[in-house]
Amino acid sequence: MRSLLAALLLGLVLSLAAVFAVQWSVVKLSFDAIIKDYIAAELAHDADELFGALSILSTGEMRLALAHYDPPFLAPHSGRYFQILVDGATVLRSPSLADAALALQPMRGGERHVSQLAGPRDQSLLMSASGYELEGHAITIAVAGDLMQIRSEFSRLMTRYTEVSLILFALLVVLQIGIVRLALAPLRRVQDDVRRLEHGEIAQLGERVPAEVLPLVREVNRLLAMLARRLQRSRESLGNLAHALKAPLTVLTHIAEDDYVKRDPALGEQMAEQLGILRDRIDAELRRARVAGARTPGAPLDLAKEIESLVATLRKLYRDRSLDIRCSIAPSAKFRGDREDLLELSGNLIDNACKWARSRVQVAVRNDAGLVLSVEDDGPGCSSEALTEIARRGVRLDESTEGHGLGLAIAQSIAQSYGATLRFGRSPGLGGFEATVTFPAP
Asked: Do both 257 and 308 map to the same domain?
């Protein structure tokens, strides 16, 4: 089960249901046994009274020396009966039996047996049979009582008990739901911390959690710290590597300008082209290393501020061409990712548009189902075949050419790392090249 709350509640409800079911069964069986024992004790007491009133006449006839019978023994089929055997033969029966008889076996003196049997008119009888001896005669006295009436009362009692038990069961379930929710409240704090961590509001998860969850939270915090250190080391190493390559690259540039190399114009042109590509790539990595700061991972970036600052820099770079670079950015547009990735992605797209634009570049950011960044220019644009080729290109340097090559390949790579899609086409408003990056919804 994916929900811990649902699993706990289901376990508690099933456990309580099992406990109440066992309790109900035990109470029912216990009450039934107690009632039977109580009735059997009364029946045995009546049998002893009947034996005490039994006498043998001089003629050998048995009689009961009773002034009167209990009323239930007089009414036919009343549910209260007695029957007396002398030496195995029935000699006396209660008037309530009428023409019926109890299924009674002779018993030895001192024996007593309790059993259930069917009585007149399908009555369910509890019978207590006792054995006695009187003047050399074996006497068996059985007294029986109908259980139907007491069972009817007992059923009503169990009905009320069941109703009360169900009410208590419902109250306990509600109470357990409250207790479980209260116990799981710290986990909701962890969930909130994860959301805040994703939004960049905090750097690590809070450790005010139950002891069972604390090791997991600490392990996550350890992994976050380790990843931050690794990212910082990679950026520093990348910057150091780029700086280390700058000097050899300068030497190679001077060699390419040597008179010996100039004797072969094709070789010189090829070396200058490849060195230019390397220089652009190294400069790009140096820029990425410089813009990497100590910003909290995942903190939302204000796109209006970042892109307008970037556009201001590009206006200065292309001031000799008097480009009209306009921005239309939704105030609520936020980017959740690395600042250097945003600057590299948007910078390459805007720089590419500035290179090819005649006079105007349009940058727009809007919030649809996800964040959408589009850059348009009024340049010559690309044919459908060229657009297909650009979209197919990867980030390999030997497949990149100036203009729509290396910069767009880098932008494509960054977009893919965020699960975004980068599409190329013709600008419907300006008529030139259009690049659109669509980020998935958070």
From this structure: no
Distance CA(235)–CA(341), nearest Å, equals 12
Query: What is the rounded CA–CA span in Å between residue 119 and residue 79?
Result: 8
Look up residue 145 and give its two tokens.
């009582």
- Predicted structure pTM score: 0.45
pLDDT at 129: 92
Q: Are residues 269 and 318 in the same domain?
A: no
Count of domains forming the chain: 3
Integer Cα distance of 143 and 299 in angstroms: 90
Residue 117 lies in a domain: yes
Residue 169 lies in a domain: no
d(CA 414, CA 271): 28
Instruction: Spell out the long-range contacts of 174-183 with Cβ–Cβ below 8 A and sequence spacing 24 or more.
Output: 176/9, 176/12, 176/13, 176/16, 177/9, 180/5, 180/8, 180/9, 180/12, 181/5, 183/210
pLDDT 10s digits, 25-35:
999 899 888 88
Let me know whether 280 and 309 are in one domain: no
Given strand 324-329, what is the order of strands in its sheet?
Answer: 324-329, 360-367, 371-377, 433-438, 421-426
373 φψ region: left (φ > 0), alpha (ψ -120 to 50), beta (else): beta
Residue stretches of the chain with pLDDT short of 50 = 1, 291-297, 393-404
pLDDT of residue 160: 92
336 shares a domain with 214: no
The pLDDT value given to residue 291: 47
Dmax over CA atoms of the chain, in Å, equals 162
Per-residue model confidence (pLDDT) at position 289: 54
For residue 360, the model assigns a pLDDT of 93
360 and 292, same structural domain?
no
Residue 344 and residue 255 share a domain: no
Range of the domain at 228: 202-298
Structure tokens at 13: 């409800």
Same-domain pairing of 235 and 360: no
Residue 9 belongs to a domain: yes
Query: Quick check: helix, strand or coil at residue 184?
Result: coil
Does 309 share its domain with 262? no
- Cβ atoms < 10 Å from Cβ of 146: 21
CATH no. for residue 404?
A: 3.30.565.10
Per-residue tokens: 355: 């290179």
